[in-house]
Recover the amino acids of this structure.
């Protein structure tokens, strides 16, 4: 079944390797699935199957010709991040900001790059390499 592009797509979406397994999972006859593999899945079925199985619809939309691969490559990331959970976005921003600040403003007094995983953290008082400033008279 997986020798055609539609056969591969149906396997990826449903997780079934046989025509009858896909038919059972999709709720259609095995002859319908055989036609889909040979001629392509109708657009309304692409949408229905991706929703039913929680699959990414992009590959199906490219296969039916509603999207081009070039369009997908230039995806609008602003639209994509609106669906990312806030904690994931915050963690990524913190990681990037920490790396940027450490690269722009190296910590010359302690000879470390504060905030990176390979050095002491801000709250790591014991691990710091601080300089003592004293005056001898």
């Amino acid at each position: 079944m997986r020798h055609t592009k539609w056969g591969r797509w149906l396997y990826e979406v449903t997780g079934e390797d046989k025509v009858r397994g896909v038919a059972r999972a999709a709720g259609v006859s095995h002859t319908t699935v055989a036609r889909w593999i040979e001629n392509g899945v109708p657009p309304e079925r692409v949408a229905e199957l991706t929703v039913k199985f929680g699959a990414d619809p992009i590959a199906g939309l490219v296969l039916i010709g509603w999207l081009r691969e070039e369009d997908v490559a230039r995806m609008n990331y602003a639209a994509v991040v609106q669906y990312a959970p806030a904690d994931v976005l915050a963690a990524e921003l913190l990681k990037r900001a920490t790396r940027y600040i450490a690269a722009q403003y190296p910590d010359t007094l302690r000879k470390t790059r504060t905030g990176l995983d390979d050095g002491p953290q801000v709250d790591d008082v014991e691990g710091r390499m601080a300089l003592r400033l004293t005056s001898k008279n």
Helices lie at 5-14, 19-26, 30-39, 43-53, 58-63, 69-73, 77-81, 86-104.
